[in-house]
Amino acid sequence: MENTLAATAAVRAVLARRMDEPGALLPILHELQDTLGHIPPDAVQEIAGALNLSRAEVHGVITFYHHFRTEPAGRHVVRICRAEACQAMGADELLVHAQQRLGCAAHGTTKDGAFTLEPAFCLGLCASSPAMAIDDEPHARMTPQAFDALIHETQGLQEAKR
Ligand code: FES
After folding, report:
1. Which of 63, 33, 61, 58 is nearest to 47 (CA)?
2. Fewest Cβ atoms closer than 10 Å to its Cβ: which of 42, 99, 110, 129?
3. Pair (39, 113) in one structural domain
């Protein structure tokens, strides 16, 4: 309940600040995603009303850009580069492996909420591809075995914090 109230307050604050900007929808969505980690479904009506758009228009923009989430991400975000250099070095196979290992599809979150899996487009490690990142920490020359080790290590750190 508290979280819902905080999210509503955040949505209203962003709208009050930006609703009169030209082309305000994308900046508003980006700011909400940065602030809340996702765009709460309840915000769609409020954004649509403030910008004089239909709910379908706002929803269409949110779903068009994979960058926007409608639910909170998992505790760790795993991003696998799918840009050209990494593709040439096996990024597709790495993504398939990651989906199997985590048990969730790209843009999905594991059932325990531990990991969200996202495709990425160039992490700046093209010369050491294929590349991935966990919580913005980049990792180069990935293999399925190295992926499993990183996930295992991250899970271990998570356990140690409990
Ligand atoms: S293409 Fe993957 S890091 Fe640049």
Report:
1. 58
2. 42
3. no
